[in-house]
Amino acid sequence: MVVRAAEHVKPRCYNVVMADKLSHKLDEVADRLKSAERVVSLTGAGISAESGVPTFRDPDGLWEGVRPEEVATPEAFGRDSDFVWRFYLQRRSKLQAVCPNSGHNVIARWESRFPHFDLITQNVDGLHQLAGSKRIICLHGDIWIDRCTQCAFEQRATDVSESIPRCSKCDGLARPGVVWFGEQLPHGAFERAVEQSSQAQVVLVVGTSSQVYPAASLAGVAQSAGAFVVEVNPEATSLSSLADVILQGPAGEILPRLEARLG
Ligand code: BV8
Ligand code: ZN
Questions:
Q1: How many whole angstroms from 145 Cα to the centroid of ligand 2?
Q2: Is there a shared CATH topology between the 1-52+100-140+186-263 domain and the 54-97+141-178 domain?
Q3: Residue 10 — very low, low, confident or very high, per pLDDT cuts 50/70/90?
Q4: How far apart are CA 153 and CA 76, in angstroms?
Q5: What's the pLDDT at 4?
Q6: Is 3 exposed, middle or buried (0-12, 13-18, 19+ CB in 10 A)?
Q7: Average pLDDT for residues 65-72, to the nearest whole number?
Q8: Helical (H) or strand (E) element with 27
Q9: Which CATH number fits domain 54-97+141-178: 3.40.1400.10, 3.40.50.300, 3.30.1600.10, 3.30.230.10?
Q10: Count of H helices and E strands in the chain?
């Protein structure tokens, strides 16, 4: 008896299988969003990557070559304010040349698409604001603010000259209006972020390595309160094992595909 070799089903290539999987996950998340009243998005540096803004911990990131302790702590500023200011003034001048990307724009539109939508961001670059987001909880401050180290007066930086900003009120040395390691978050910001995260039905965590606290605790807070947690990131992170769904890919591609499914 001649046994025919089993017809080999043409193996579908890996990318096709992965694309199908992502498509099903996008459908699942879209279904959740369609019935959600309260949605929160928590963002990190990755959402600005497609605008050309380097992240912190990726290869060629902002902290390549410098240790965070050298540039992102009050002690570092006390030791060498010129060095720290050079790090921030360089970032400011690069930020002058960039624009929000489609990921920022989708999140800005979602503010009017859902009955309650809140954006919680670790970013200090101002791109969410430029994209039109208004309901923003800024956990780590604003790189465009100069805060006086003498009288705490705050002024918005107008130019990005290399000169180190001085207070326009008392001529005291200014510092960047961001939150450094070991510093408290802006008054009430974390409490508001916990409140919004605890009431959300869906939380989209976009472009963060989830390594910095207390911001990194918010997804867990939301999930314990019943939220469906979605991670949008091309890479696995400390959050990945907790997320209900991982949409693996760049935010500028994933978020528009998700928005398209909401009709
Ligand atoms: C505080 C300065 C007391 C601003 C920064 C537990 C509880 C509380 C505190 C701690 C704790 N354990 C430890 C601490 C202390 C410390 C801390 O977290 N240390 C870490 C290192 C363990 N936290 C603090 O000191 C905080 N203050 O705790 O006060 C307190 C206590 C309780 C409650 C309230 C207060 C202050 C933290 C702020 C530090 N300041 N920077 C600036 O210069 O910008 S942190 C720095 O990291 C940035 O602010 C940034 O926002 C933050 C997080 O980084 P990410 O945004 O995640 O960026 P990263 O590069 O890491 O990752 C990018 C991701 O994007 C990657 O996953 C990549 O795959 C992805 N990606 C790349 N391309 C894309 C993409 N994703 C999507 N699309 C793409 N295209
Ligand atoms: Zn002053």
A1: 13
A2: no
A3: low
A4: 21
A5: 54
A6: exposed
A7: 78
A8: helix 14-34
A9: 3.30.1600.10
A10: 9, 9
> Are 141 and 84 in contact, with CB atoms under 8 Å apart?
no
pLDDT in tens, 98-110: 999 999 999 999 9
Q: List the chain domain ranges.
A: 1-52+100-140+186-263, 54-97+141-178
Average pLDDT over residues 163-184: 95
Q: Is the pLDDT of residue 83 over 70?
A: yes
Chain position carrying tokens 């003498």: 150
Which amino acid residue places its CA nearest to atom 58 of ligand 1? 45
Cα→Cα distances 102→32, 105, 108, 255, Å: 22, 5, 10, 8
d(CA 146, CA 163): 13
Q: Which residue has tokens 């408290």?
A: 184
CA of 65 to the centre of ligand 1 (A): 18
Is 140 a catalytic site residue?
yes
Nearest CA to ligand 1 atom 60: 56
The ligand that comes nearest to the alpha carbon of residue 150 is: 2
Domain at 1-52+100-140+186-263, CATH homologous superfamily: TPP-binding domain (3.40.50.1220)
For residues 249 and 234, the answer to whether their CB atoms sit within 8 Å is yes
pLDDT of residue 249 exceeding 80, the answer is yes
Whose Cα sits closest to atom 14 in ligand 1? Answer: 213
Q: Which residues are bridge partners to 119 per DSSP? A: 41, 136
Contacts of 161 (CB under 8 A, 6+ apart): none
Q: What is the pTM of this model?
A: 0.93
